[in-house]
Amino acid sequence: xxxxxxxxxxxxxxxxISILAGLYFYRYVDKQDSGTERMKEISDAIKEGSxxxxxxxxxxxxxxxxxxxxxxxxxxxxxxxxxxxxxxxxTLTLSYFFGAFxxxxxxxxxxxxxxxxxxxxxxxARDGLNKAFPVGFRGGAxxxxxxxxxxxxxxxIVYFITGDAGAVLGFSFGASALALxxxxxxxxxxxxxxxxxxxxxxxxxxxPEDDPRNPAVIADNVGDNVGxxxxxxxDLADSYxxxxxxxxxxxxxxxxxxxxxxxxxxxxxxxILGAATLRIxxxxxxxxxxxxxxxxxxxIFGILTLIASYYIGYDLRLWGAxxxxxxxxxxxxxxxxxxxxxxxxxxxNTAEASKTGTATNIITGFSYGLQSVFPPLIGIGxxxxxxxxxxxxxxxxxAVFGIGMAAIGMLSIVGLIISNDAYGPIVDNSRGIxxxxxLGDEVIRITDELDAAGNTAKAITKGFAIGAAGLTVIAxxxxxxxxxxxxxxxxxxxxxxxxxxxxxxxxxxxxxxxxFVGIAMPALFSAxxxxxxxxxxxxxxxxxxxxxxxxxxxKEGKEGVKPDYARCVDxxxxxxxxxxxxxxxxxxxxxxxxxxxxxAQALGGCLxxxxxxxxxxxxxxxxAGGLWDNAKKYIETGVHxxxxxxxxxxxxxxxxxGDPFKDTAGPSLNTMITVMSLVASxxxxxxxxxxxxxxxxx
Amino acid sequence: xxxxxxxxxxxxxxxxISILAGLYFYRYVDKQDSGTERMKEISDAIKEGSxxxxxxxxxxxxxxxxxxxxxxxxxxxxxxxxxxxxxxxxTLTLSYFFGAFxxxxxxxxxxxxxxxxxxxxxxxARDGLNKAFPVGFRGGAxxxxxxxxxxxxxxxIVYFITGDAGAVLGFSFGASALALxxxxxxxxxxxxxxxxxxxxxxxxxxxPEDDPRNPAVIADNVGDNVGxxxxxxxDLADSYxxxxxxxxxxxxxxxxxxxxxxxxxxxxxxxILGAATLRIxxxxxxxxxxxxxxxxxxxIFGILTLIASYYIGYDLRLWGAxxxxxxxxxxxxxxxxxxxxxxxxxxxNTAEASKTGTATNIITGFSYGLQSVFPPLIGIGxxxxxxxxxxxxxxxxxAVFGIGMAAIGMLSIVGLIISNDAYGPIVDNSRGIxxxxxLGDEVIRITDELDAAGNTAKAITKGFAIGAAGLTVIAxxxxxxxxxxxxxxxxxxxxxxxxxxxxxxxxxxxxxxxxFVGIAMPALFSAxxxxxxxxxxxxxxxxxxxxxxxxxxxKEGKEGVKPDYARCVDxxxxxxxxxxxxxxxxxxxxxxxxxxxxxAQALGGCLxxxxxxxxxxxxxxxxAGGLWDNAKKYIETGVHxxxxxxxxxxxxxxxxxGDPFKDTAGPSLNTMITVMSLVASxxxxxxxxxxxxxxxxx
Lengths: 698, 698
Description:
The structure is a homodimer.
Chain A: H1 10-30, H2 37-75, H3 86-124, H4 129-162, H5 165-205, H6 217-252, H7 259-276, H8 286-312, H9 316-340, H10 345-353, H11 358-372, H12 374-391, H13 398-412, H14 414-436, H15 441-490, H16 495-501, H17 509-550, H18 565-636, H19 646-689, H20 692-695
């Protein structure tokens, strides 16, 4: 019996179950009480703003996706006029559209549930922590399960129809391209709204934060959902899909295309079991529960995959490599936590430094941010090398495949990781709603506790996100090399020639030039995105000022006079995408230019350079941003003079500097590198055939 | 006749002439009038403080140099108990001591003349710009000519005695190790003194800047000379020596050991001619003159080396590679200038952003700093690749040698570059002295003009420093490879084995692990150094407070009561070195650990990673720092509210954040990478023989 069952079908089955489980959790959350009239009003405004944002974003992105899809159809996998089988081009285009569509859908679902679960969790907090916690957590789980369910189902469908890992590459590119917009665009949007709301409202007019008269206030609330929920989900989803594709392609030559699907499917089962068993007693600690859920899921995953490997007959070294990845995720998370934790020396020293002024706060925080890159980079490097050597004895091609398996291992439980991560912004919003709707001190205390748990869980989930992105891009570099080799074999090159043409030796001039371009790319991208925030904020500030000037009675708070919230959301959305477009175009343009000028070696060097500096900058910016945020919060607990003191003012500036670091630029870099790597793999065949230096005989 | 003359003897001859020319300029400056009694008083205090600093620094460093020298004697080039010729160990140790000694001597000479030339140039400004300019410039030229003279003479002596490029490596390591302390130690010192003087003086007691009652004020003045003059000279000298050594070692197998010495010698002639012809008329523009001097020197260098190549019989492709390097230096300088120039959009936009507050000033400046890395990185990459392909047709080994020649070309005119660079802090001090000594508005206007010229020249000299460091470390990576190959040949390995063992392929696990460690190193080093500034400042603040409390009459400014300036200098010096020691030890320790664990491939990856992230961070920090500084200065001209406005306050914080970026961490990174590379080359033979992964059969 067992022999007749294709093992990889675990993937679509698990994906469907994941979607069903997500639906179940959705209904659970949906049937909770939304609370008082005032709460519903606040919630509806945020929901409306979020939908306005998504509608605008998806309308613009549809055009972008259509244009890129058409270009794919014409040029990939080979130009349609030279193609032996033009159907390949159509398949790839459709996969691309499919990937983009499913990614957009996952974002929509996540936003929808997040804007529901926040009020419901706040209202449930009246009945105690153990009632509110499941609402928040299951809201997050809807997002997590939808993301992995849609992703893995999509991959399975494309693979089932085409039987070709190459076509799945198109799917992955579609998902990543959309993720880049969701992440970086959402990041620009949220900071834009934040700055504009504060500057015109608090600074110019002196009205309180979150005052409903402020036309930017809804955009600001929407921003939290856009950036944290939709963007964060897109980040992990994008690494998740890319790692599966990378391992499928690397596995093609080894007859192991399907192991990635099997492990990913089992990861979903582990995540669902982990999520389902997760609850707390009346006196329980929600933070510990979330982390316990992660550990339980890891253990279930380890057992399930061990059993599957035994029955299907996968070598246990491959299983070992995936466990190495999983362990590395936990270790990286725990060490990263040190640099942003409110009880450890980096945050304490940065808070202390705030006493001597803003500049010392910034320098100290930035310095610790620089230090914080050390443990995770070593962790990623060690995980990759251990996985490599573990699988090397299996034969040629297995060693690099092992790195891919480590990435798969780390990402397999991503369903639970996203759940834990989405939980954070949901309960953060709950706290805000509880405060605005006046639910009383006890409810606020409970939502505070829920919020703190989100921060505890974040340390480990962040470790997974960083580690997974690192291992995935290494696997994608190997994928690019393998695609280039395949194209060279097809072109009839000899083994010796191929070995030279795809050797990414750092002292080769092409690799070196590519690497120098590559290390500059993440810096350039971050700069463009962060400067975009400033320009976009200016546009929105103008609009907010205009409304206060032109809408009679708005400033005075006259009964029935409402600002035009939707117009603010619209301006911030359009502006964010307008700022992002040049950054994305430059990224894609430079990647292709390096490839078509320098060939496979230059592009390999470029990807490696981008991986190195991308991980460095992403870690620096995310950790420094988190650290400044927590240093400010620490001072707000009353130390060094507490709120309103000079130290606090300095820490607020640090936090403001850290905002675009940790919410806009830092987290977009993983996705940016993934997009670069996928483009490289997609164009590998064309690039080895047509490149300037190669044509010049260099 | 010509055949009997060994061409490389150009080097020692040029070096001696350089030292003589330096002496001539020294006497020229020395016989100028030092000005009024008040001026002499100020100048003497600074001189005394500087000497106190150097004495303290050199005393501590002597111990460090002795310890490291002893270790070299025991272990290098091979452990003394296994050594066939123990004399080699002694030679290497002596070369190391010699390099350290000459570097220290050059630093001493530079400090001495800088603390003299500043008052003299200020006094000469009474007679007009065309009288003051040569005093400032020739003061700088003493430093420039002394540095290249001592360096090249030292290399020539070591080479003459040993006839072995490997021994020169020891000399280079000695010079670089000292340079690291001079640069990074000086950088910590200068910011420490700056913060302590400001915080206790201006903030706590409300006394004016540069008030003689402040015990930290002399340390602050000393800091300018320590950081800018001695440190900057050490930076370029260290790249200069390293590039010559790299090319000598790479040239050994090609029979071209001596071309580096010939080109370097001719570069000195070109620099002296350029410096000697440099003067301005009464209405002249000193900034243009400095740049014109650079261009003239480049052209003279091009002609001299072309003629020499023709007569000695060097292939013109090698000459071409050196010209590529020279041209790249100019191009990189011009593009870098864009990001820090007061008339270009980055500075203007950052000044504009200051109006919305400190956080936007920081984010905008930081973003432009990130952007600024793009042109120079591409410039370095393109120069390396062009030089590579230019020399490749000459045969195996020539291509990488070409990159070394590009570095030599860029650095050959370093005598003039250092002169122009040292001119800046000298005339900057002149301005301060003119103000303190009350020399009147016209003199201050002239010193302002001299100061502005220093900034104009700085753009191009900085381009040279960055580009040269980039090309030099690439050449050093190749040198490391070549040393590893030599050791493997000696160990009797086959060609095929060697090709595998030294291939720096990025997808090799050892290279990859090394690269991940390597990219983290410059981040860690910068962080340790910047955090050290804060800790050291605290020590000094305590001492300043103590003096104000314990010395009766000091605070009140009682006649005859003087603070203990020397004690402050002493505390800041000892503290700076104490903070630097862990950072240096970690750098050396990690480099060796990577090598002895992972072998040559891991260490090659580590060097490459350090080069990538080191250049990225160095460019980011230097340019962002310069940009913030100029944005503040731009506001001080009266725009956006001018001095005292909110925009100005924001810009001052930006400038303060930028200070340790551009004066402490950023400029130390080049030297740090050079030191790592030299250590790698020195230990190459030991590392290929004894490394953990190799012993485990991986």
